[in-house]
Amino acid sequence: MITTDILIIGAGPTGLFTVFEAGLLKLKCHLIDALPQPGGQCSEIYPKKPIYDIPAYPEILAGDLTHKLIEQSKQFKPGFTLGERAETIDKQEDGTFIVTTNKGTKHHAKIVAIAGGLGSFEPRKPLISNIQKFEDKGVEYIIKEPELYRDKKVVISGGGDSALDWAVFLSNIASEVTLIHRRNEFRGALDSVEKVQELKNLGKIRLITPAEVKGILGTDKVTGVAVQKEGEDAFIVDADHFIPLFGLSPKLGPIGNWGLEIEKNAIKVNNALDYQTNIPGVYAIGDVNTYPGKLKLILCGFHEATLMCQSAYKRIFPDKKYVMKYTTVGGVDGFDGTRKEAPKAVVKAIQ
Amino acid sequence: MSLDINIKITDRNGVIHEVVAPTDMAMNLMEIVRSYELAEEGTIGICGGMAMCASCQCYVNSEHKLPEMTDDEDAMLAEAFHVQDNSRLGCQIQMTSEMDGLEVELAPEI
């Protein structure tokens, strides 16, 4: 069991900044994120795109913003549970919470801060009527264990980087790799595109374009897929595995069943006070919340995180006196033993 | 001269909405849909208008000369679902006076 003061669900910019603000109040944080790396949308969707409305940064790339937030929060030694999705929440008799992920990792926290953005990123599933029946029986949307494909016949569909990269990677493991895409053109890093071309020329990757997988064959498990080129009859490609790689899309997911008040696919919070939800002790900050006048901006998430941490402190220590202190005045004491402070002026006579 | 144009949008439930869109606010079709709340928040414009999610896909049913597709939009539509010949991403259609009378239908939610 992982224990912490504030359990943050979502390691995007708002979640990461929460670690810093909580740290100033000597509260320890742990973050859960469904993605394998922190940064949320900033690292998953648009790391190379510029943002122009982060105060004091005339321009910063989303990926760089993530790095700086991680650097800023590092001194407060946050814990991470990455690649797992927060699934259930159980309020304990003492008012604390246990949050369990889809992989069964349990987290015990005094406060839960949902900074989930638009939700957890889930693979986009192609529209094939019987696809659900074959999930984990030959259909995988995410490649977790490449060895699973050793000496197997694999069909990959998709036209982006992950389809290209995995086709290249699996061509050394699987007995057959077929890559199917709706267009003749692929969108990816030049390296990957060229590598696929090379492997195709060597006969190590079979390319079928422009085409689509229209159906899956098999009884208990995948034995093949029906492929159709535009204007032609469908034909069958034998396969042990079918891996559709069409990117990720965010879904609110299990959080939607936690008994929180939901409006417009977002969690309603009290913005007059502290961004608390209808469940005392559970807060929602950043893009995941809604209130009158809400703006889904990173800078608004930072503000919400800051106020939320003050409220969390009061909830954890109802009788302890505290007033906010400027970091310039008080400095910053990290949980890693570091201390940052403004240089002291000296008082010395000049002769 | 009015800076507003008229657009006809069929929502995901088949309901037709005739809306007025400003041309002086650098808005695109996806943002018009959101401003009139014609699709539920969180189901459209997920990437914010970067042609990276296809949640604003629509079918253009009028004969307007549309801005040419960028490589990004083209590649996104190559991977999107429910794509038809007249599919476009709403976030890539800017509201200009040439778009007056545009008729579009929102593609199903993904």
UniProtKB/TrEMBL annotation, chain A:
Cofactor(s), by name: FAD
Catalytic function, reaction form: 2 reduced [2Fe-2S]-[ferredoxin] + NADP(+) + H(+) = 2 oxidized [2Fe-2S]-[ferredoxin] + NADPH
E.C. code: 1.18.1.2
GO MF annotation, one: ferredoxin-NADP+ reductase activity
Superkingdom to which the source organism belongs: Bacteria
Bound cofactor: record note: Binds 1 FAD per subunit.
Record keywords: FAD, Flavoprotein, NADP, Oxidoreductase
InterPro entries recorded: FAD/NAD-bd_sf (IPR036188), FAD/NAD-binding_dom (IPR023753), Fd--NADP_Rdtase_type_2 (IPR022890), Ferredoxin-NADP_redctase_2 (IPR050097)
Residues the entry annotates as binding FAD: 14, 33, 41, 46, 86, 121, 287, 328
Residue ranges of every copy of the FAD/NAD(P)-binding domain listed in the record: 5-292
Subunit structure: Homodimer.
Family: Belongs to the ferredoxin--NADP reductase type 2 family.
PANTHER family: THIOREDOXIN REDUCTASE 1-RELATED-RELATED
HAMAP family: FENR2
Record protein name field: Ferredoxin--NADP reductase
Taxonomy of the source species: Bacteria, Pseudomonadati, Bacteroidota, Flavobacteriia, Flavobacteriales
From TrEMBL, chain B:
Pfam families on file: Fer2 (PF00111)
Keyword Isomerase belongs to the record: no
Domain 2Fe-2S ferredoxin-type: 38-95
Domain of life (superkingdom): Bacteria
The keyword Cell membrane is annotated on this UniProt entry: no
Gene3D superfamilies listed in its UniProt record: 3.10.20.30
Molecular functions (GO terms): 2 iron, 2 sulfur cluster binding; electron transfer activity; metal ion binding
Stored InterPro entries: 2Fe-2S_ferredoxin-like_sf, 2Fe-2S_ferredoxin-type, Adrenodoxin-like, Beta-grasp_dom_sf
Gene Ontology BP annotations: P450-containing electron transport chain
Record keywords, A-Z: 2Fe-2S, Iron, Iron-sulfur, Metal-binding
Protein name stated in the entry: Ferredoxin
Species of origin: Polaribacter glomeratus
Lineage start: Bacteria, Pseudomonadati, Bacteroidota, Flavobacteriia, Flavobacteriales
